[in-house]
């Protein structure tokens, strides 16, 4: 559940942004400079969690897929498919939703708001999705890997171990079956 004292808002063109600073210049800039363009171009939808005075958090969602190209070999791809797909039928790609951006305003970090957002998204994409979506993915900043690991996201590949961001995923199916 998202904290009830804040309002969840789907960004629209007229929205006036309240104060936001998550400590990461690129994320701050994306929100203020780019998020409306992404919305207009149908590339990403941004959601805001607002208090009376602050943008407490924001997240931007993209469609995504997991494919063989995410893996270093066919063997790894097949290993992944057999670990997460129980049916006989194997597909060339699996539908996913990417958390393209996520930031919590400095004043509100460490209050489990990031965790509440991930829990909300997991539920949302299981119960209210309009199309099939099996995974949540994220290109996680190195500084936030621990946060996603605590929220049960896994690394998709070892190829990006030395990169600034690492591709992580969460499988929605077990939640759906529970
Ligand atoms: C990373 C971020 C989203 C976490 O949000 P948050 O609301 O502060 O996190 P939570 O309070 O829900 O933390 C949940 C757990 O993750 C841990 N955690 C939080 N941030 C962490 C980090 N950067 N590294 C490692 N662990 C972290 C917390 O200690 C907590 O652990 P616990 O369950 O053992 O107490 C937030 O700090 C942020 O906006 N950072 C800057 C932007 C960023 O890195 N965004 C991610 C882009 S991919």
Q: Tell me the total number of β-strands.
A: 7
Helical content band: 25-40%
Bound molecules: coenzyme A
Mean pLDDT: 95
Question: What can be said about the biggest beta sheet?
Answer: 7 strands, mixed
- Trace the largest sheet across and list its strands: 1-2-3-4-5-7-6
- Helix count, per DSSP? 5
Evaluate the radius of gyration. Answer: 17 Å
Classification by helices and strands: alpha+beta
Q: What amount of the residues lies in strands? A: 25-35%
Spatial separation of the terminal alpha carbons: 18 Å
Outline, from the CA principal axes? globular
Task: State the order of secondary-structure elements, H for helix, E for strand.
Answer: EHEEHEHEHEEH
* Parts with pLDDT < 50 across at least 5 consecutive residues: none
């Amino acid at each position: 559940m998202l904290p009830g004292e804040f309002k969840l808002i789907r960004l629209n063109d007229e929205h006036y942004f309240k104060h936001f600073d998550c400590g990461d210049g690129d994320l701050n800039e994306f929100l203020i400079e780019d998020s409306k363009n992404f919305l207009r171009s149908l590339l990403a939808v941004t959601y805001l969690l607002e208090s009376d005075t602050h943008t407490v958090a924001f997240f931007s969602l993209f469609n995504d897929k997991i494919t063989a190209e995410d893996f270093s070999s066919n063997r790894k791809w097949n290993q992944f498919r057999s670990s997460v797909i129980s049916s006989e039928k194997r597909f060339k790609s699996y539908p996913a939703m990417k958390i393209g951006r996520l930031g919590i305003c400095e004043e509100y970090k460490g209050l489990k708001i990031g965790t509440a957002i991930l829990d909300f998204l997991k539920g949302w994409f299981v119960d209210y999705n309009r199309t099939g979506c099996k995974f949540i993915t994220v290109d996680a900043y190195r500084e936030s890997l621990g946060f996603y690991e605590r929220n049960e996201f896994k690394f998709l590949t070892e190829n990006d171990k030395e990169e600034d961001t690492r591709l992580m995923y969460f499988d929605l199916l077990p939640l759906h079956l529970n």
